[in-house]
Amino acid sequence: MKTVFKVRVVTRDMITDFFARFRSILGGRVKSYEKAIQNAIDESYQELLSEWPNVKNVRFGTTEMLSDAAEIIVYGEVSDKEYVTGPKKNKKER
């Protein structure tokens, strides 16, 4: 089995960051960041599935790269045979 993955970096604009920092001082959920991370996970997952339809054991990970950016990693395993043939090409890439 070989590991395949998709990576995205998510940032927000300065105004959203300002309100998110203010919200973190008061406590509670920062819904704008939650939505941005969830969208990035969903998009990365769909992109991984479109390129590697037979991917198994899919996992997600997030890390903070900067104070204003998060990295989203979606990864899974494909068979050695499928890995050698390469990912399916999206119609946009042709």
Task: Chart the SSEs and their pairings.
Blueprint: E1 2-11, H1 14-26, H2 31-51, E2 56-66, E3 69-78, H3 80-85
Short note summarizing the structure:
The chain has 94 residues and is of the alpha+beta class. It contains 3 helices and 3 strands, in the order E-H-H-E-E-H.
Features:
single chain; 94 residues; alpha+beta; 3 helices; three-stranded antiparallel beta sheet
Distance between the termini: 27 Å
Beta-strand share of residues: 25-35%
Structural class: alpha+beta
Query: Helical segment tally?
Result: 3
Query: What is the count of β-strands?
Result: 3
What string, H for helix and E for strand, traces the elements in order?
EHHEEH
Written account of the structure:
The protein has 94 residues and is of the alpha+beta class. The protein has one domain. The protein is built from three helices and three strands; from the N terminus they run βααββα. The protein has helices at residues 14-26, 31-51, 80-85; strands at 2-11, 56-66, 69-78. Strands 1-3-2 form a three-stranded antiparallel beta sheet. The longest helix has 21 residues, at 31-51. The protein is elongated, with a radius of gyration of 16 Å.
